[in-house]
Design a protein that fits this description.
about 25% helix
Length: about 800
């Protein structure tokens, strides 16, 4: 929002320089990004009258103009021809200064001397039109310094307005803040209610979207260029002057914050105007010349022939103000912020008006905006206001807020006594009444729809009292900071995996239902219960993920397609499982809302070499044991006791090449080699490895810092045992039986050989384990070794039906 300082002074003058006021507003929560002076440096440019014009001999375009400044006549050469005898124009005589450090001099052209120049609006920094000379108002004082007459030294405040402070997108709204921050007197203009017959009845079909509609009719206007002061003011505020009938509504909008639109009354089809939603198939050619197909959700202003404006966004070309316009109908309405926002985004049409509606414009400003606009039109274009009507079906009730002064002090962390709080709130036109229990009843002013709850008043008290006066102290929360146990556990897991050669990735939490079908899961699988996105980015990202695998496999494909064949990645993240009927869902949701389950998962994917080739050995391809090792790293990082695995044929893995994992007996997930059909569906290499584990189950309770085993000072026993079992018995079951037999003194148990042969019998296999047993209290002997072997034989026989191979 650009606000010329002289315009602001029409309503409040705190007696500060532009820079001082910029600092004050910035400390008051309205950042002033810059103080601009677009016409700074204009000196020696006077108001002159065109006394004579002749063509310059030798040139087809140039003219010699005699310009009289009230004292003498100056002969200048000009290229433009948009002026007539008697017009008032800006004359820059030799030695005059223009913006940008330009000094005007004499110049000889085709044998004639040009004593300076006639200036355009662009050359003076008061407009963007450089095609012709700036023709001034007829009442411009002859010989007057243009800089003094138009206040070209006027500073312009470039204010950055946050979305919650829409009131500051107006000169008066900004003036209210200046008055509150400085204590200067605020002079507000009068607002006059419409009287008489507007000539065109107005019907509000949808009062929820159009709360108010003030219609005023002005007859007998004359369309012309706006006065110089109005052109300069609009340009300084960032808008292009067009004509008096168009500029007046823009001036009223910038001044009051309420957008105004003017229709050519003769181009409206009777008998009435309706504010309604668009009908199927309706179209509107907007003022920018674009034909727009309207949506049934769009709110429009319509006459008997159809829509004439897209409410709150832009008017229609069919009723546009033109040079022949004689009668005008002013529309000063109040539209729903949500309605205008959706229409503007739908049609990709953001205007100065829509920006204000999106931030909520109070309905109480319509009368003031209509009064100001009508007065400016009659002042600059003549005409008479012959009638008007104010349609306000359901007046907005004022917002009442209960304020607890002590609670405000507690939240702000500084002492602001009750009287000071009352004074600050009253400075922004709040009604404040002290209650017997020490609280305040505060009625928010109509121009501040952003004040809706007690916390908003805390913010107002803080910014009006001064953010720079807030003490630099951190209030005590009563709790000790730091990471929680489970958060620390997740951090340790990431560190451990990164140290083990895995790379962490982050993928989008959105997948497609087709991804789950490609993984081979049945329709009744929990992971097929997805939650659809209301506005998905694409078909491939239409639902919330129920598994990390699709995202990880896309990472693998992305890298392989870019000639990075060796990939080993992991991701820790939540998945989302939709609740079924009768399912209470996850805790913590509001009443009547069932939240989805969000388990924390850890996913892996790998292909190519896990260990790169070296000069002394070839590369080692990734295999199932790398996944098992990764999960074991996770177990160790969390201080969990044991990891066991057993073969599984679960989809989407290759039968016999996948393992179900348990940590301390808890089922945590499955890892393995992908089935070839799944690899082909995701376009990843054959024998790609992947898997998921329930990280929330592994890190439950946080990191447990287990004490390391104290090494025995005495030599331990090292011996091997070979157990013959049926082919179907998992090695993990045999290992568990061995560990149970030896007990706590067992420090290592490693499977180092698997053998099958005719001497074992059909359907039998031999598993050989290397054992180490330590006892820090005494020296173990051969008798102890024999006892351990006997215990192993009894244990495997009882647990898995095995026998020792001697």
């Amino acid at each position: 929002m650009r606000v010329p300082l002289s315009w602001l002074h029409d309503y409040v003058d705190p007696g500060l320089t532009a820079e001082q006021l910029a600092d004050l507003l910035t400390f008051g929560g309205l950042e002033v990004e810059a103080v601009l002076r677009p016409s700074a440096g204009v000196r020696g440019v006077k108001v002159a009258e065109v006394a004579a014009v002749e063509r310059l001999q030798g040139s087809d375009k140039l003219r010699v103009v005699e310009a009289f400044d009230g004292q003498r006549t100056w002969e200048v050469v000009a290229g433009a021809a948009n002026y007539r005898l008697g017009d008032k124009v800006p004359l820059a005589t030799p030695g005059a200064a223009l913006p940008g450090g330009i000094t005007v001099g004499r110049k000889q052209l085709f044998g004639r001397v040009s004593n300076g120049m006639l200036a355009s609006a662009a050359e003076l920094g008061v407009g963007d039109d450089h095609r012709g000379i700036w023709v001034l108002d007829d009442d411009a004082p002859l010989g007057a310094e243009l800089a003094d007459w138009l206040a070209l030294d006027d500073a312009v405040l470039d204010v950055s307005v946050t979305p919650d402070r829409g009131y500051a997108l107006s000169v008066i709204g900004l003036g209210c803040d200046v008055a509150a921050l400085t204590g200067a007197e605020l002079r507000l203009p009068d607002a006059e209610a419409p009287t008489g017959d507007p000539g065109v009845p107005v019907t509000i079909v949808d009062p929820d979207r159009c709360r108010r509609f003030d219609a005023r009719t002005i007859r007998g206007v004359r369309v012309a260029r706006s006065p110089a002061w109005l052109q300069r003011r609009l340009f300084a505020a960032g808008m292009r002057p067009v004509s008096n009938i168009v500029d007046a509504p823009n001036h009223a909008m910038l001044e009051t914050g309420n957008p105004v639109h003017a229709y050519d009354l003769a181009l409206l089809a009777g008998p009435r105007i309706e504010v309604r939603t668009a009908r199927p198939g309706e179209m509107l050619v907007t003022l920018d010349g674009v034909e727009r197909i309207l949506d049934p959700d769009d709110l429009v202003i319509a006459d008997a022939d159809g829509p004439v404006a897209l409410a709150g966004v832009m008017g229609g070309e069919a009723t546009e103000i033109n040079d022949a316009t004689a009668d005008v109908l002013l529309e000063v309405a109040n539209f729903s912020a949500r309605t205008v926002l959706r229409s503007a985004r739908r049609h990709r049409l953001v205007t100065e008006g829509s920006l204000r509606w999106e931030r909520t414009v109070p309905a109480e400003t319509t009368t003031l905006a209509a009064t100001r606009c009508a007065a400016l039109i009659t002042q600059t274009a003549g005409g008479t206001v012959v009638g008007g009507a104010d349609h306000y079906p359901a007046p907005t009730a004022p917002i009442t807020i209960r304020l607890r002064p002590q609670r405000a002090r507690d939240h702000l962390g500084m002492e602001v006594d009750d009287d000071r709080q009352r004074q600050l709130l009253r400075s922004i036109a709040c009604e404040v009444v002290a209650e017997q229990d020490g609280t305040f009843t505060v009625v928010a002013p109509a121009y501040r729809p952003d004040l809706v709850e007690e916390a908003d008043l805390y913010e107002e008290i803080a910014r009006l009292h001064g953010y720079d006066r807030v003490p630099e102290s951190v209030p005590s929360s009563g709790t000790v900071g730091g990471r929680g146990r489970e958060d620390a556990a997740r951090r340790e897991v990431r560190r451990a995996l990164a140290g083990g050669g895995w790379t962490e990735v982050l993928t989008f939490p959105f997948i497609a239902d087709d991804d789950l079908v490609a993984l081979g899961w049945d329709a009744d699988d929990l992971r097929r219960r997805t939650i659809a996105l209301v506005n998905p980015l694409s078909k491939e990202e239409a639902v919330l993920r129920t598994s990390l695998l699709p995202g990880l496999l896309r990472v693998v494909r992305h890298n392989v397609n870019r000639q990075t064949a060796d990939v080993a990645v992991f991701e820790a993240g939540h998945v989302f499982i939709a609740p079924t009927a009768g399912d209470p869902g996850a805790p913590g949701g509001p009443a009547g809302v069932t939240l989805p389950a969000e388990p924390l998962m850890l996913g892996f994917a790998a292909c190519g070499n896990f260990e790169s080739p070296r000069h002394d050995r070839p590369g080692r391809p990734a295999d199932l044991y790398d996944l098992l090792g990764a999960v074991d790293l996770v177990r160790r990082a969390c201080g969990r006791g044991s990891l066991t695995s057993e073969a599984t044929a679960q989809t989407p893995f290759h039968p016999g090449r996948a393992a179900r994992l348990r940590v301390d007996g808890d089922d945590v997930g499955v890892v393995g080699e992908l089935h070839p059909r799944v690899s082909a569906a995701f376009e990843v290499p054959e024998r790609t490895l992947a898997g998921e584990v329930r990280l929330d189950r592994v890190v439950a309770g946080g990191v447990t810092l287990a004490r390391g085993r104290v090494p025995s000072p005495l030599p331990g026993l090292r011996f091997d045992v070979a157990v013959v079992v049926d082919e179907a018995v998992p090695a993990a079951a045999v290992e568990a039986a061995v560990r149970d037999a030896v007990g706590e003194r067992l420090t290592a148990c490693t499977l180092f050989d698997e053998f099958r042969g005719p001497q074992l019998g059909s359907g039998r296999k031999s598993l050989a384990f290397a054992l180490r047993v330590d006892d820090p209290g005494r020296q173990l002997t051969d008798a102890d070794e024999a006892a351990f072997i006997d215990a192993v034989e009894r244990s495997v026989g009882r647990a898995v039906g095995g026998q020792l191979r001697r």
